[in-house]
Inverse folding.
C-alpha cells in the first residue's frame, strides 16, 4: 500500500488511527474526576504533540540515518516561525502560503548552514551547528529586531497590510489563521456522559501534515537514498573508497531535516501567530535531541513517541503540586505520607526537568535504542521466544 | 590607546573564566577522550560551593539585646552567627567577609570528589561508546545536576559579594601614565585574572615537572604503551578528571562576585567553552588557554561602541563567527595536535 511493504503500511495505519482518535485516547478520565488532570486531550497540547513530532521526525532523518548530531536544529524551527508570521502579516491569514514559505525559507537557511557545517563531522559538526544557531538567536534577539521583533517577538498587528486578506475582522480584531475558511482555533465538543472530547481544526490540520511527513520519512528510510545515508553513518571512509562523495547525500539529508523543522515552525505559528527568538535558543535544539533519543533514534516511530512523551511530561507532570501528592497518598499513615511526598516532590511540578534528565540518562545508558528498543525487548521477553530461538542458534557459530 | 587597554583588561576576566573551563575540558578530552558536556555544570557547582560556604558561615541564632525591649515589653532579639562565638566578633566578621576566597579550600575536596565519582560511576562506562553517546549522557547529567541545584537553591541568582577589601575599583591608568580616571578596573576582576593565571600555571607545572604529570602526558600521547609498561594509567586519568573538575569548580567559586550564581550559569558558559576548546584545538592545553583569553578579549573589543557602530550586533556573534572561520580554515584549531579528533 502506498509503495510500502506490509510492515511499514501497518505501522502507518496504526499511527494514523492513533492520531485520528487521539482526542478520545488522550482523554481517558472523565471530566471532574481526580485523574482528569492527566488528560492530554485538549487541542493546545495535542497540537504540540504532532508539531514536535514533525520536528523530531525531521531531526531523525539527519541524526538517525547519517549519525550527524546537530545541536542547532531549533534555528530552522525559529526561522520557519518567523517566515510564517511574516506571511500572515503581508499576504493573508491563510496558513497555506505561510507554511510553504516557512518550509522554503528553512530549507534555504539549512542549505547555507549545512554547506558550511558539513565540511566537518563528529563533535566539530555539533559545535558548528551550535555556533550557527546561537548566532541566529543572538542576531534575532538584537540587531534583526526590525525583522524579528527582538525581545517581544514577532506579533500580528491591526495595521498589517495583508494584501490578499482583510487587515481586520468585521469587529475590528486581528483575524485568526485559517485554511480556506476553516479557522485553526475552531473546535467542536462532544459530550458523552462525563467525558468531554474536543475536536479542533488546528489539531487535525497539523495531524494530517504530520501523517504526510511521517509517510515521507518512511519512504526516505526505505529508499536507496536512505540506504546511502546509512552507509555514511556506518562507514564514511569505505564510502569514499568506493568512489562516492557522501557530501551531497548528507547535505540533502540536512536540508530535508531543516525543512521538516521549518514546517514544524510554520505550523506552530499557524496555531498561535507569534514567533520569538527563544525558539532558536540552544536548549530548544537540545530538546529535540532528547525527544529523538528518548523515543529511539534511527527508528521510524521513535521520535514521535519521544516528542509526545516529553511534551506530555512538560505539560502534565509540571502541573502536579504537593497538595495533589498529599491527596494521593492520603491513605498512608501521616508520617509515612509526608515522607513519601517529600521523596517524590523534587521530581514533579517545577522539578520535572529533573525527571526528564534522569530518564534521559537512563535511556542513553541502558537503552541506546530508546523506548522502541525497550518495547522490543519487552516484546521479546513475552511471546516471541520460540521465533527467536532458532535465529540465535544460527548466529552463534558465526561468532 | 586608553580605550584599547581598557578593553583588553575587560576581556581578561571573561577570558580567564573561558580559559579555566576550556583547560578542564581539554584535560578530560586529552586524557580520557571524552567530550564532557557536564563541565559547565561543574563550574556552576563550584560557584554554589561558595554560596554554600558563605551560608554555612553566617548560620546564626537569636540572642537578646541586653536592656532593649520592644513596645510590648518583650526583649529585642538579634541574629548572632555561631562563628562569632567561636572566633570572637572581629575575627568572625572577617571570616564571613572572606567567605568567597575561603570557599576555595572548601571547593577543592568537594569538586575532586564529585569529579572522581562522576568518572568512576558514569563516564568510565562510556569510553568505548561513540562520541555522540558521550555528549548525550553528559548532557543529561548536566540537566540533572542543574535541576538538583535549582531545587535546593531556587532559580534566582544569589548575590555573593567579594571581601570588602576588594570592593571598589582600581585606577589602572594612573599607574601607567594616563590621566586619572580613564582606565578604571574593579579590584576583584584583577584578583580573578591573577587567580586564573596561578591555577593555569599550577596545572601546567604539575603536568610538566612532576613524575605523575609526566606519566599522564605519556598516557595522553599513547595510552596503550603506557599501560603495557605496567602503569595503571586509568587510575591516574581518574585523578586528572577530578583535577579538571576542581579547576572548573575554582573558576566558578571565584566568579561568584562578578556574576551572581544561578543554576543555568554553567550551560551559558559551557557553549562558549566548547567553542573555545575547538578554536584552541581539541586536546591542546596551551591552545585552550590561548583561545580562552583571545576570545574573551575579542568579545570585549567587539562590544566597543565604535565597533558596534560599524558592524551592528557584532558583539553578540563575534565568538561564534571566529569559531566558524577557524574551523573552516584551520580544521585543527589554533594549536591542535595532529591525529586528535580529525574526523
Amino acid at each position: 500500500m502506498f509503495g510500502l511493504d506490509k510492515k511499514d503500511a501497518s505501522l502507518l495505519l496504526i499511527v494514523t488511527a492513533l492520531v485520528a482518535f487521539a482526542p478520545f485516547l488522550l482523554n481517558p478520565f472523565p471530566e471532574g474526576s481526580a485523574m482528569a488532570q492527566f488528560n492530554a486531550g485538549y487541542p493546545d497540547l495535542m497540537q504540540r504533540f504532532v508539531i514536535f513530532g514533525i520536528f523530531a521526525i525531521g531531526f531523525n532523518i539527519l541524526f538517525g540515518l547519517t549519525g550527524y548530531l546537530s545541536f542547532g536544529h531549533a534555528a530552522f524551527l525559529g526561522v520557519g516561525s518567523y517566515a510564517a508570521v511574516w506571511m500572515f502579516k503581508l499576504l493573508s491569514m491563510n496558513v497555506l502560503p505561510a507554511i510553504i514559505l516557512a518550509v522554503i525559507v528553512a530549507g534555504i537557511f539549512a542549505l547555507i548552514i549545512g554547506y558550511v557545517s558539513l565540511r566537518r563531522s563528529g563533535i566539530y559538526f555539533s559545535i558548528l551547528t551550535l555556533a550557527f544557531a546561537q548566532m541566529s538567536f543572538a542576531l534575532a534577539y538584537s540587531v534583526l529586531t526590525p525583522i524579528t521583533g527582538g525581545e517581544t517577538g514577532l506579533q500580528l498587528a491591526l495595521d498589517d497590510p495583508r494584501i490578499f486578506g482583510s487587515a481586520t475582522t468585521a469587529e475590528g480584531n486581528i483575524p485568526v489563521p485559517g485554511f480556506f475558511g476553516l479557522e485553526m482555533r475552531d473546535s467542536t465538543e462532544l459530550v458523552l456522559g462525563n467525558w468531554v472530547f474536543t475536536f479542533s481544526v488546528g489539531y487535525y490540520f497539523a495531524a494530517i501534515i504530520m501523517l504526510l511527513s511521517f509517510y515521507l520519512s518512511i519512504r526516505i528510510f526505505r529508499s536507496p537514498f536512505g540506504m546511502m545515508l546509512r552507509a555514511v553513518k556506518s562507514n564514511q571512509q569505505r564510502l569514499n573508497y568506493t568512489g562516492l562523495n557522501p557530501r551531497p547525500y548528507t547535505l540533502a539529508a540536512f536540508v530535508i531535516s531543516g525543512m521538516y523543522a521549518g514546517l514544524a515552525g510554520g505550523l506552530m505559528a499557524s496555531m498561535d501567530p507569534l514567533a520569538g527568538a527563544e525558539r532558536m535558543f540552544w536548549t530548544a535544539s537540545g530538546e529535540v535531541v532528547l525527544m529523538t533519543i528518548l523515543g529511539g533514534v534511527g527508528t521510524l516511530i521513535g521520535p514521535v513517541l519521544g516528542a509526545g512523551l516529553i511534551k506530555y511530561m512538560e505539560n502534565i507532570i509540571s502541573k502536579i503540586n504537593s497538595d495533589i501528592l498529599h491527596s494521593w497518598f492520603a491513605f498512608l499513615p501521616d508520617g509515612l505520607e509526608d515522607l513519601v511526598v517529600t521523596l517524590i516532590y523534587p521530581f514533579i511540578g517545577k522539578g520535572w526537568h529533573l525527571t526528564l534528565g534522569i530518564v534521559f540518562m537512563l535511556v542513553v545508558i541502558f537503552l541506546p535504542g530508546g523506548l522502541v528498543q525497550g518495547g522490543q525487548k519487552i516484546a521479546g521477553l513475552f511471546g516471541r521466544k520460540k521465533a527467536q530461538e532458532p535465529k540465535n542458534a544460527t548466529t552463534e557459530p558465526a561468532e | 590607546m586608553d580605550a584599547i587597554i581598557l578593553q583588553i583588561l575587560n576581556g581578561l576576566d571573561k577570558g580567564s573564566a573561558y580559559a579555566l573551563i576550556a583547560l578542564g575540558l581539554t584535560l578530560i578530552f586529552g586524557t580520557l577522550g571524552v567530550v564532557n558536556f557536564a563541565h559547565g555544570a561543574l563550574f556552576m557547582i563550584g560557584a554554589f560551593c561558595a554560596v554554600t560556604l558563605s551560608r554555612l558561615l553566617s548560620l546564626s541564632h537569636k540572642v537578646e539585646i541586653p536592656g532593649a525591649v520592644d513596645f510590648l515589653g518583650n526583649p529585642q532579639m538579634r541574629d548572632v552567627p555561631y562563628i562569632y562565638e567561636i572566633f570572637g566578633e572581629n575575627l568572625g566578621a572577617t571570616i564571613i567577609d572572606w567567605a568567597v576566597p575561603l570557599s576555595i579550600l572548601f571547593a577543592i575536596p568537594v569538586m575532586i570528589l564529585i569529579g572522581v565519582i562522576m568518572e568512576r560511576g558514569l563516564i568510565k562506562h562510556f569510553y568505548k561508546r561513540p562520541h555522540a553517546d558521550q555528549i548525550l549522557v553528559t548532557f543529561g547529567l548536566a540537566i540533572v545536576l542543574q535541576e538538583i541545584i535549582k531545587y535546593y537553591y531556587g532559580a534566582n541568582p544569589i548575590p555573593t559579594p567579594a571581601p570588602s577589601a576588594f570592593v571598589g575599583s582600581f585606577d589602572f591608568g594612573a599607574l601607567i601614565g594616563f590621566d586619572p580616571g580613564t582606565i578604571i578596573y574593579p579590584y576583584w576582576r584583577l584578583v580573578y585574572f591573577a587567580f586564573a593565571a596561578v591555577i593555569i600555571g599550577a596545572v601546567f607545572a604539575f603536568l610538566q615537572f612532576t613524575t605523575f604529570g609526566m606519566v599522564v602526558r605519556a598516557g595522553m600521547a599513547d595510552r596503550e604503551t603506557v599501560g603495557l609498561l605496567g602503569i595503571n594509567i586509568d587510575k591516574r586519568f581518574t585523578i586528572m578528571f577530578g583535577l579538571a573538575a576542581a579547576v572548573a569548580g575554582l573558576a566558578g567559586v571565584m566568579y561568584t562576585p562578578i556574576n551572581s550564581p544561578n543554576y543555568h550559569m554553567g550551560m551559558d558558559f559551557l557553549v562558549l567553552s566548547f567553542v573555545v576548546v575547538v578554536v584552541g584545538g581539541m586536546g591542546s592545553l596551551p591552545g585552550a588557554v590561548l583561545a580562552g583569553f583571545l576570545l574573551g578579549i575579542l568579545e570585549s573589543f567587539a562590544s566597543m561602541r565604535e565597533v558596534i557602530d560599524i558592524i551592528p550586533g557584532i558583539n553578540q556573534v563575534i565568538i561564534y563567527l571566529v569559531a566558524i572561520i577557524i574551523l573552516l580554515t584551520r580544521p585543527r584549531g589554533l594549536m591542535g595536535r595532529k591525529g586528535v579528533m580529525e574526523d
